[in-house]
Amino acid sequence: MSAVAKAAGVSVSTVSHVVNGTRLVTPETRKRVIHAMDLLGFEHHAAARSLSAGSTRTIGLALTAASNPYWSELVAGIDVEASRSGLDLMIVDTRDDPRHEARVIANLLAHHIEGLVIAPALGWRDLTLPLLREHPIPYVLVDRLQDLRVDQVGVENENSSAALVDHLLQLGHRRVGMVAGMKGLSTSEERRAGFLLAHRRHGLEADPRLLVEGLSTSQGGRLGMLRLLSLNDAPTAVFCANNNMTIGALAALRASGLRVPQDLALVGFDDYPWADLFEPRLTTVAQPLTAIGARAVQLLLRRISDPAAPVETLRMTAHIQHRNSCGCSPEGEPVLSHEQ
Amino acid sequence: MSAVAKAAGVSVSTVSHVVNGTRLVTPETRKRVIHAMDLLGFEHHAAARSLSAGSTRTIGLALTAASNPYWSELVAGIDVEASRSGLDLMIVDTRDDPRHEARVIANLLAHHIEGLVIAPALGWRDLTLPLLREHPIPYVLVDRLQDLRVDQVGVENENSSAALVDHLLQLGHRRVGMVAGMKGLSTSEERRAGFLLAHRRHGLEADPRLLVEGLSTSQGGRLGMLRLLSLNDAPTAVFCANNNMTIGALAALRASGLRVPQDLALVGFDDYPWADLFEPRLTTVAQPLTAIGARAVQLLLRRISDPAAPVETLRMTAHIQHRNSCGCSPEGEPVLSHEQ
DNA sequence: CTGTTAGCGCCTTCAA
DNA sequence: TTGAAGGCGCTAACAG
Asked: Does residue B94 contact residue B68 with C-beta atoms inside 8 Å?
């Protein structure tokens, strides 16, 4: 930078200011500086700036498992919104393991990121939350919302689950099962609540035996579905509370030789990029992940610029992606009716 | 750090050396320093170290589109291998756009990353390659290998494509079509070569009309398949050269009311996390992506430590994930035979 | 509108 | 085995 200054016949401070646009510079000198810069191939040294200015212009993103395509859209939303604000993004994978999570986040902190978007792992409160608390770093939670006064953005789990189950009940199903997610996850609890809410709305009481544990994994979904099928009064329709479990449930159905939706209607939370090509074509709740990502960054920026701003919890509305695993035609016309 | 030094009654330089283990320190003083460190909650300022030492302990990863689940496994492989070596990973999305690619990579360079793993976008040679050339930064290419003397790791495209097409020919198919990838991509060319190779091995000549362009996209795959179906002597089996095109081809088949494998056998390059749940269950070439990621990092580390090391191009062998879209039973037993 | 200068927090040569 | 001190490249008062 001093070389540029010399070449342009100005001081380093002027160069710094044209680089950052932080104070008025005569158009003419600015031009000289810029010319000198690309003459010498000047490059901004991010670390030096960060050291000096105390700001890295980088935000972190901690995800539970990059291996779930579920995040792709979210990452895209965050990426676009961050780069729009001139922020770099540093993505880390927590492996959904609290210890690893704390480790990689400590790492992010050592990099002096200016904010953090985090999809908390189960058990994050033991290590990560304290870490975050003892550091003055703004952060916002996504996906698995917490019962805490922190900024967070997720989806309307309860209402959209209820709407999906409503649909099954309206089709005439009277024994609707649910493969629920890992206990303790807010998303699991909320979706479970939606399942129950739909029943109440129809003046029904859900049979507790039809509500099984699926651990949020595809393996859990498989076992959960098998359990439901083994009941002597098995459900005629099933709601799976996340994408992995839906996969597992489908595998179980296939192994049992049951057809969807002829033998059993199946719907799930979370949409897939290729949902149209599964057989059956799955009716799902599709989250607005891009929007969630974008809003998360916006919340983060607001928190960064105004640490005293009121805490916000955003719940985006999801929509039902209507296909035919629920027993409707692709157009949404009921094709089969299941009456007891 | 100076605070730690004072607390421990030593100089900052000693503190620095115990932090980095860069010179001998009496066990006793070391203990005092360490004690002082966690007493004061000392934290290494990465930017300062980087400024002073000129090393950031961070590598970059530039991918064409985080939105393709295809990369998940690769990222996992890279992440694990990098963290094993104490390196941080900074992931950016090039959007498969040469201009955006150059932009985000310049960004990475401004961060003074120590190395870069890149899945080059089509057209990367115009902007990115020059950028990389004028910077003394080690990098390794993954996936789309180039005809350049640079470190790179990918998969055996030609042989594995040939093996897959071999399989179709062995089943008795005599008119095998191919939906090929975007021209100019090395992966496309190699897979195309594999298709031709298989025919030669069987003493056959591939009908050029059966080799259509699919642009590497699902839309292209759809159109390519439609073109094949419109031929008056349409193929009885088709090989799609990547996951997106297979998806598109499947959509075209569904729209045309054709069943796989009964009416047409279909196989594709690239496996899917959920391939078992597509209908039909797709027979594919599955790349060892985790291993590719790990090897890429190893290559990068070697290049970093020894800039003069011989350039390497690694081709990992893929395996055929045998399901039933090829017209075999799940166990691999031919169930149908297509003879002209 | 522009220049001077004191650090940011750490590493590392040089000297003891 | 340890200290002292200069400097990495840049920013941001402060002064002109």
From this structure: no
